[in-house]
Amino acid sequence: MLLLNGRDITSQDCLGFLDGSFFQGARVMTTMLAQGHAVVDFTRHLDRLLSHATEFMSCQLPSAELLKFEVQSTLERSAERGGSRVRIMLFQDTSGLINRLIDIMSLEAETLMAKHPGSGVRLLNHTDRAWIRGSHVKTGLIGPHREKEIIRARTMGFEDVLWVNSEGEIAEATWANIFLIGRTGDLVEIATPPASSGLLLGLVRRRICELLHTAKIPVTERVVTIDELPRFDEAFVTSSIRGLIPVSQIDKHRFQTTRPNAVFHHILRLYQTWLTTEKSNYIGDLNKSTPKTDA
Question: What residue ranges define each of the domains in the chain, with the CATH number in brackets?
Fold first, then answer.
């Protein structure tokens, strides 16, 4: 289901998508998981979206109230009562005006975060000399060079690419942040790359860090180099739609993430418990009031 500027998509709109006239200027987006009519961490997603839009766009932005109203009304019109992917995109057309596109797609049960592959995912490291350091803005655009590397990784039997910046620092997977777990005797280190290494600061990444801190489990945001991989025993990636996914291999280095006694399973249970029992903390009740009309 698609909504463009508060109305259903028309055939004329489709022509605009095809000739690219809708996407000539800046573009930012956010992707969220909906469970029925509620969206996981909706407020945080919306705050990040509008923050990125303020950074990249000079025109007047739609109000948060308007976006909330349109997301809820679209979800209520959808027949899907299970999991859905909700995407909000703000983009400029050829006239410079900011348009808003809301895209809601049903998810099959096996694609939900609780249904990760039992064998884990495999990542192929690639150093991108042009990788921009510092936190990234989510645009949904990869670029032909990165698409080529993803295809190459898949032809070699890997599911995704682990992107490394020009300094040899691990950044992220293509659509997910990464955590690495290492053991030294009885000590366990949980590390995730910092914004300075060049990544999109994902909201599930942020939520995992908060849950670990609350549980008194140390987690460190620090630079992790590709040369350090052999010292880590486990790894997992996080995304809003897929949740927590174990990593079984990066290049030739194999992890123990899928073993029954892996630390990963404890972290996964923390997240799943939060999802199922702390609804007041993670599901945004979308305001049904009439939105402002000046956005």
Answer: 2-107 (3.30.470.10), 121-277 (3.20.10.10)
